[in-house]
Fold:
Amino acid sequence: MPEITTQPQPTPNQKSINWKNILIGAVIGAVAIGLGVLIFLLLQPKDEISSTVTTKKATPSVKISTPSAKKDETSDWKTFSDKEKTITLKYPKEWDFVRENPPIGKSRSIVIAQEDVVGDPYIQIYISSRNSDFDYYKKLAERPVGSIVKEGGPVHPWVSKKRLENLTVDGYITLREQVEPEQEGSRASYQLIVLINRENYVLDVRQTADTKKDFDSSQKLFFQILSTFKLLD
Structure:
C-alpha cells in the first residue's frame, strides 16, 4: 500500500504575526497616553502670577524763562530817529516831550522826557565830534572801575563821578559813569552817563534826574530805552 505522509498542523504559537493589529494598537496607546498627560496638566492648579501695574506719573515740565519768552514791554513804545539818521531808539508812549536842538559847532543834543525837563527824569543824548569829548572818553577809559573823582568849584557845584563797569549797547562796548551832586538841591543833577566811541563822533546818552529818589526809580526805564538803541551809520 502506498505510504501516506501526513503534514504536521501548526500549533497556535507558530501562527504568523499580524503587524497591522500591532501598529493600530500602538497608535491607540500613544493617543491614550497623550490624552492622559493633557488631562493631567489641565487639572493641575495654576500658580498665581502677581502682576504689578506701573502707573507712570507725569513729571511737571520746568520751563526756563528766556528773553524771547518774556513780554516785550517796549513793543508799543514810540520810535525816535534823529534828523541826521545817526540813531534810532524807542521811548514810552506816555512821553510827549521830544526836542532836537540845532547843532552847536560839532555837537548836537536831543532831549526826551515825559512832559518837560523840569522836575521829571529825562533822557539827554549828545552826538559830538569835538576833541574835548574824545579826550573825556579816553580819560574815562583809563580810569579803573570803581574809582571816584570829585569835580566842582566856584561856578559849578561839586559832584562825585564814579567809574562803572562797561555795558554793551547795540553790540558796542560802552563806558559808564555815575554822577551824584555833593548836595541835593544844587544846580547839579544825578546822572548815569553811557559813552560810545564811533571814531567820527562820541555818543553820550544820559539818564538825568533832580533827586536821588527819581534817579533810582527811573533807572530800569533808562536801561529799557538803552536796549532799543540802534546806531544807523
